[in-house]
Design goal:
26% of the residues lie in helices and 21% in strands. It is built from 13 helices and 15 strands. The protein has a 7-stranded antiparallel beta sheet. It has a 5-stranded antiparallel beta sheet with strand order 4-5-8-6-7, with helices on both faces. The structure holds flavin-adenine dinucleotide (FAD). Flavin-adenine dinucleotide binds next to strand 2, helix 4 and strand 8.
Length: 493
């Protein structure tokens, strides 16, 4: 296979392909395989020459797992973007290099169906699905990983031989555990995913038009915005509390509100605004939004601007909330610290948030709180590798900077903010009545650092809970040489 080395004009363009500019890798060479056979050959060559390799699909990793200076060979799957209906498996085949946006586009234009997946159209399916993958439609339809029927993975055996294997969720499949591990363990653990096959668990027959949920006919978005300067601590508390209470009351699997998804952006005061952005689908969309805002925004008692728009599904999916992913995002360095919540934030956690979000500091960022639950919570914790199945919100402290001088204050701020949200549990959201660990698609290496995790609960329990030993057994079987590893990868049993 052709090796793209630093002298090649394609090298710097490919090296740039990463969302989080906090990390820089410098592989000896990059390869662009176009088929499973080429992935297998490229893996074989790297393993045989004892070079550290890593795979990249969409480049949206939030930590430095791909852009790691120790990596010598980078397999970039950008050329593997085929999507088709596979009648033999009665499922949609999606190559791992396809982006989420391309997946939405092809499934909609081809068959008017949708796979519920993540929010940013540039995310790669390769890393995304294996990490669970939540998004705008998850309350109504669940996670993308819940639709995984089969996966093709290039693995390396004890003798160092690379080979492709297909693992399905069929009960009699001897490789079923490898399928299971790809429903929530996250990318970069067992091998290189070349293809996913996706179909609804309850789909029957061989009709592509019913193999996945029908796409929404339209999306109604809403944007609520307040001037930060009009808030005192009381109003801030009401806003955060109302959002948590709403999530608590409306995240049951039978809630009529599941077609509504929203995110509360508790931005730092430097940003000037506090916001809610969300959407609803279906004939009841406007009524759902009215009730959502009547419960959350109106009782805050501070005037806000409200913008409601309708758009066809695909137009929305390919460019959702454009202001969130502005041009400057191309060069942003970021840190995201995720936490699942099973119950609303307490008054004392909201007071901590107020303190950090109003601190005099030269930083940008905030606390984002996304609605969750619904259909996601209809699956038992061990049916897939995604163990968190009783949460009502996904919450994240986040920050970003453009100037490298912003790194130190931003990191210090976001790390201490997160730590102080969980003072009784060692600075992290341990699985308990209120919190439930964190999402591996939003990896945070601080959870493995005793400076930031003093809970006594290891990072892998925060991500995988009781599923970790089983994941370790899959790792021992399918990647016995630990060829595929990163700072938070599964350790062999
Ligand atoms: C702006 C932004 C928005 C996001 N929104 C969401 C969201 O709405 N919902 C959500 O669940 N997550 C979201 N994420 C997180 C995202 O799902 C994960 O970062 C995911 O791992 C990205 O996959 P990728 O292929 O783009 O990333 P990459 O950087 O290419 O890879 C990420 C990890 O997966 C591994 N990997 C990549 N491809 C493969 C493969 N083919 N086989 C095996 N391992 C592989 C990599 O080695 C690496 O460890 C978001 C991230 C960003 C930056």
């Amino acid at each position: 296979m052709e090796k793209i080395t630093p002298g090649d004009i394609r090298y710097s363009d490919l090296a740039e392909k990463r969302f989080n500019k906090r990390y820089t890798g410098k592989p000896e060479y990059i390869v662009l395989p176009a088929s499973t056979a080429e992935v297998t050959a490229a893996v074989q060559e790297a393993v045989s020459s004892q070079r550290r390799l890593v795979v990249r699909s969409g480049g949206h990793c939030l930590e430095g797992f791909v852009s790691d200076p120790a990596v010598q060979v980078l397999l970039d799957l950008s050329l593997m973007t085929n999507i088709s209906y596979d009648a033999a498996r009665a499922a949609f085949m999606v190559e791992a290099g396809a982006t989420v946006g391309e997946m939405y586009r092809r499934l909609f234009l081809g068959w008017s169906v949708v796979l519920p997946a993540g929010e940013h159209p540039g995310i790669g399916m390769g890393g995304h699905v294996a990490g669970g993958a939540f998004g705008f439609l998850c309350r109504e339809y669940g996670l993308a990983a819940d639709y995984l029927y089969a996966v093709e993975v290039v693995t390396v055996d004890t003798s160092g031989k690379a080979q492709a294997v297909i693992a399905t969720r069929e009960n009699n499949d001897p490789h079923r555990e490898l399928w299971w591990a790809h429903t929530g363990a996250g990318g970069g653990n067992f091998g290189i995913v070349t293809r996913y096959w996706l179909r609804a668990p309850d789909a029957t027959g061989n009709d592509p038009y019913t193999a996945l949920p029908k796409a929404p006919s339209a999306i109604t978005t809403f944007r609520v915005s307040w001037e930060w300067k009009e808030f005192d601590e009381g109003a801030f508390n009401r806003l955060a509390k109302n959002f948590g209470t709403w999530c608590h009351q409306h995240s049951k699997p039978d809630s009529p509100t599941l077609p509504l998804f929203s995110i509360l952006f508790l931005n730092h005061r430097n940003i000037g605004k506090l916001e809610i952005k969300g959407l609803a689908t279906g004939a009841d969309a406007h009524r759902l939004i009215d009730h959502h805002l009547a419960d959350i925004a109106v009782p805050v008692g501070i005037p806000y601007s409200l913008q409601i728009e309708e758009s066809p599904w695909l137009r929305f999916a390919l460019n959702p909330f454009p202001e969130l992913f502005q041009p400057g995002m191309d060069s942003v360095a970021a840190k995201v610290k995720d936490a699942y919540f099973r119950a609303p934030l307490t008054d004392s956690q909201i007071a901590t948030a107020y303190r950090y979000l109003t601190a005099e500091a030269p930083i940008g960022g905030g606390l984002g709180m996304a609605t969750y639950g619904g259909k996601v919570n209809t699956i038992t914790p061990d049916a897939t590798a995604t163990a968190q199945r009783s949460c009502i919100m996904d919450v994240a402290c986040n920050t970003g900077w453009l100037d490298p001088k912003g790194a130190a204050p931003s990191l210090e701020w976001v790390r201490n903010f997160y730590k102080d949200l969980f003072p009784d549990t060692g600075g992290v959201p341990v699985p308990n009545e209120q919190t439930d660990g964190a999402m591996i698609n939003h990896p945070d290496t601080d959870l493995a650092d005793p400076v930031w995790n003093k809970s006594g609960t290891p990072w892998y329990t925060l991500y995988y809970k009781d599923n970790y030993p089983r994941l370790q057994r899959v790792k021992a079987k399918w990647d016995p040489l630990n060829v595929f590893h990163h700072a938070l990868s599964i350790q062999p049993a």
